[in-house]
Fold this sequence. Notes:
The chain has helices at about 10-20, 35-40, 55-70, 95-120, 145-165, 185-195, 200-210, 220-230, and strands spanning about 1-5, 25-30, 45-50, 75-80, 130-135, 170-180, 240-245. By secondary structure, the chain is α/β, with parallel strands linked by helices. Strands 3-2-1-4-5-6-7 form a seven-stranded parallel beta sheet, sandwiched between helices. The longest helix is centred in the middle third of the chain and has 26 residues, at about 95-120. The chain is globular and about 55 Å long.
Amino acid sequence: MHVLITGGGTGIGAATARLFAALGHRVTIAGRRREPLESVAAAFATTVAVTVDVTSEVACEDLVTAARAAHGPIDIVVANAGAAEGQPFARTTLEHWQQTIGVNLTGAFLTAKAALPDLLRRDGDGLRRLVFVASTAGLKGYPYVAPYCAAKHGVVGLTRALAQEYAKTALTVNAVCPGYVATPLFDDAVANIVATTGRTAEHATAELLAGNPQGRLIQPEDVAETIGWLCSPAAASVTGQAVAMSGGET
Length: 250
């Protein structure tokens, strides 16, 4: 199987790449920064790294072309690229709104669209999977991240629409919706709270995790394992789902 993962250099994307590579799959990881991608790819001979701006249609098409050249047709796509920056809605600029929507929602759309011919092909073993990495912000609202919530709600809607459209094919379409995960994105959120409120990092972390009944920071490997299951033959009847991973928050 050939797995394409965007946002593959760190966090959930890197953990997912390691999982699939360890299972013996061919993996293409993509992202904006070459160095972290190459660091992940270096650990596995079957993994290649490609830089991409997922907000560009041409770049996403070029990514799929490069992935095919390295590993052949794509069987599984994990659209994981994302970004978040918190600020009050009243201070949210149109530029910030468009950037957030561009990376989190338009990027998911462009990634899926570029890879769609491969995901709908009829040769091979027939197993085809598309998994969007959304967020609990796609299932509920959070203050100070209105553009991110809007984008991730859009990703969940896109998931449900595509699952219905392609239900008669071998392609399943699902989203995973984790709460706060131990990734650089979470570190950035903590740093932003510290910078704007003067609270300590420990207090900021506790504040962010207060809505999680388990009170634990989700690990990237937890999310990767769920993605792996959604991409397995055992999940053939699971499509159109937004799988919450939030310790009971949603």
